[in-house]
Amino acid sequence: MFSFLRKKTIHQAQVNQHPVEVNSKETLLVSALNQGVAMAHSCRVGGCGTCKCRLVEGKTRSLTDFSYVLSAEELADNYILACQSVPLSDIKVEARLTDDQAPQTIQGTVAAQQMLTHDICQLTVRLAEPLEYKAGQYTELALASMPNVFRNFSFAGQSGQQEVRFLIRRVAKGVLTEKITRDNLVGEEVTLRGPHGDFWLQPSDAPILMVAGGSGLAPIMAILKEAQAQGLNRPVTLLFGARRQHDLYLLEEIEHMASHWPAQFTFIPVLSEAGDEDWQGQRGLVTEHIAAVLTTDMHAYLCGPPVMVDAASDILAAQGIRPEHIHADRFLTNTTSVAS
Question: Of 27, 157, 175, 248, which one has the greatest count of Cβ atoms within 10 A?
Answer without folding.
Answer: 27
